[in-house]
Amino acid sequence: MLSQSLLLQSDNLVGLKYLLHEKALRGKIDLIYIDPPFATGINFSVLNGRAATISAAKNGDIAYSDKLKGDEYLSFLKERLLLLRELLSAQGSIYLHIDYKIGHYVKVLMDEVFGFQNFRNDITRIKCNPKNFKKIGYGNVKDLILFYTKSANAIWNEPYQDYSKEDVLRLFPKISADGRRYTTVPLHAPGETENGDSGKAFKGIMPPVGRHWRRDIATLEAWDRMGLIEWSKTGNPRKIIYADEQQGKRMQDIWEFKDPQYPEYPTEKNLKLLELIVKTSSNEDSIVLDCFCGSGTTLIAAQNLNRNWIGIDQSEAAIAATKKKLDAVEKDLFYEASGYEHLILPGKSALQDKARVLDKQALSEDLFGLKEPTAKRLVR
């Protein structure tokens, strides 16, 4: 287990190999969230504390470059996904945030690397208000998040969404004598029980033909004594469900987490979006990794939820934005005795070049047999 959180300023291909070889984190990362470039063909910058395209700034102000397109982009991404697969634990999950233009190609790539059987969701994320551009095509207000797990035994902390006032009125239409809103549900379910308790009579009533009681007779009798069963005029029992006792409604695969209106960094995402992902697919002793960490929203979410985290980005602007955000959560997080590290790894190297010949089916152990250059440790 990682005893500290780590911020790496590095090409993420080098950084991921550093985690595998030097940090020995193969199979130990429970959650990976990445928001890679979207193959837009644009360079992005930070100008006067705000995100901007490079047309508004000098070349030296580039925060990150998104110039790779087509096969070159997919090859770039696959190299990193193969390494991420090796880092991911048996109970781990990976969420990849991408746009509609390249996302379907990335889905095929993710199927190849992580297995179609481990695909869980294509989540639609509503990112902005409706657009009214005058061009052929419908306004684009969404992107997508591809969700995969390493296996069928992934960490899963069931997420719930609060009921709206409209939900409460629609789903809980009845009102009790003490003013509580409620609904009722059948006490029986499909399938007959030949010998079990759930096929016996309850208060002299047998379950309908072809069905059985959902719970044993003792439980049904206890519910009745507690006033949790409503009897119809014809003597049909139904379970009472109170609105104020429910956690909320189950999260579906359309999420509305709009981007910040005035982001400080080009890839900045909604913190609530990342907190939902981190809370759902990791535990407090988990390590959360984002190797395209941008302004560090994933790391902030992990820090807020008491997870270990690792962030990687080669952009000085990204690292600066991340450290600024982390400082706002916990002052002087990177002082020497804190247990949090900021490392700078070398950029291009022979090791990085060798990674470009990854086998399609498996990672070569020889790839990680080379000794990494010593990292430079920065503390305040």
Task: Walk me through this protein's architecture.
The protein is of the alpha/beta class. The protein has two domains: 6-159 and 251-378, Rossmann fold, CATH 3.40.50; 165-245, no CATH class. 25% of the residues lie in helices and 26% in strands. It has helices at 12-21, 70-87, 103-114, 165-171, 217-225, 271-281, 297-304, 316-329, 350-354; strands at 6-9, 29-34, 42-47, 50-53, 62-66, 88-98, 119-126, 142-149, 160-161, 174-175, 181-186, 188-190, 211-213, 229-231, 237-242, 249-250, 254-256, 287-290, 308-313, 341-344, 376-378. The protein has a ten-stranded mixed beta sheet, sandwiched between helices. Strands 10-11-15-14 form a four-stranded antiparallel beta sheet. Mean pLDDT is 83; it is low at 47-52 and 348-380.
Number of helices: 9
Helix percent band: 10-25%
pLDDT < 50 stretches: 47-52, 348-380
**Strand/helix succession:** EHEEEEHEHEEEHEEEEHEEEEHEHEHEHE
Structural class, from secondary structure content? alpha/beta
Q: What is the CATH third-level topology name of the largest domain?
A: Rossmann fold
Supply the CATH architecture of the largest domain. 3-Layer(aba) Sandwich
Indicate the overall shape. Answer: elongated
In spatial order, strands of the major sheet run: 17-7-8-6-2-18-19-1-20-21
CATH superfamily of the largest domain: Vaccinia Virus protein VP39
* Largest sheet report: 10 strands, mixed
* Total E-strand runs: 21
Strand content: 25-35%
Q: How far is the first residue's CA from the last residue's CA?
A: 25 Å
CATH class of the largest domain: Alpha Beta
Integer tally of domains: 2
Averaged pLDDT: 83
Radius of gyration: 26 Å
